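WARN no homologs supplied; continuing
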Amino acid sequence: MSRFVTSDMEQVREWLGQVYGTRLLVGHIGDSSRLALSIVAAGPLMTTDLTLPGILHCRNQDIETVRIGYVLSGTVMIDDGEAVNRYGPGDALVATFPRDNLVSRAEELRIRTVSLPLDLLIEVAGGSPDGSGDPPRLLSRAPLGAGASRTIANTLALTDELLSSPAARHPLVVGNAARLLAAGVLATFPTTLTVREETHTDHSDATPAVLRLAIDYIEAHYAEPDLSLAAIAAAACATPRAVQYAFRRHLGTTPTGYVRQVRLSAAHADLLAADPADGATVSAIAARWGFYHLGRFSAYYRRVYGRPPRATLTT
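OK structure emitted
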């Protein structure tokens, strides 16, 4: 096991880059606060226990490993370009998946993570690890079912215990622990390795009535930061796949894309009503509606309204 503790922002930047492939965009930690990082690595697995004091904004892109996290305290918000997902204590999440391009905001966060190669997931799922076929894709960052986060927590605890014991010196033990973890990940998060994206029932259920129920729910709950596809689907009395297909069929977008449109409209209204003389800023208004990456927000805004958000605020 390796352990690092620091309050030096340059070291924070270096360690996040080395261990997670994460680029620190901006961050602040108090004078008396410390980043703490414990690492246990064996074979293809690496587990970490990370404490990030203060508020940090980071980017992950072109990461080739799968990293699963379990939040112990604090919060983290992840913007993957399609949706903004918020996680708090007791939540499991996909921190990174190959070909991700993510922006995250961590606040007083302590998180356990484990990383494993994508090839291992493909092998355990019964696929071909030689790269033939379409690359596996993550279908949702939300775990499957109410008990899924606890499954990840238990699997992480068991893996960490194995890797910290003398048995970790035996390749067979490490290999079986890695497969156990991969099986837990596949059972907890939907990917194209284990879940068919669409079924005949999903297509049949993708009716205008399902779409209307989903839209009504979104328009009543879009201000909630943890609005999820699962909740939208439950309100529409359909599967998440059926709801996604209904949006594509009838509106040419996705549920998360529609949520983004509604929130962008709310941000536009706030920009029109705000007064810079009172301290209003584009970044604060964008963050209020779940847009934590100012560059992405500005691009979305300009695409819809034909000018940058700052021009609206100062008009």
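The domain at 2-188 is CATH 2.60.120.10 (Jelly Rolls).
OK
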